[in-house]
Amino acid sequence: MTTKELRDMDPDAAAEALRTALTEVGVVFPSLRVDLASPELQLIELGRVRADVAARLARALQRGGCE
Fold first, then answer.
1. DSSP letters of 6-49?
2. What's the pTM?
């Protein structure tokens, strides 16, 4: 994707893509959502997670997403 395409990405679609990818490796961010406070920035709110969830995410990233 080009930089312009990345900037123009729909934040709802991006959040759902991230949710799906995380779910596929057994990681759930309960607070993951689009940040509605600054729509022009298209931010995704990840929220807080327990330490075990953060560790599971780290392992998944280290293994290239394969558990």
1. HHTS-HHHHHHHHHHHHHHTT---TT-EE-TT-GGGT-EE----
2. 0.77
User: What one-character DSSP code corresponds to residue 9?
Assistant: S
Distance in angstroms (rounded) separating the CA atoms of residues 67 and 62: 10
Q: Which two tokens stand for residue 34?
A: 């689009």
pLDDT digits (tens, 9 = 90+) for 10-67: 999 999 999 999 999 889 999 999 999 988 889 999 989 999 999 999 998 898 855 5
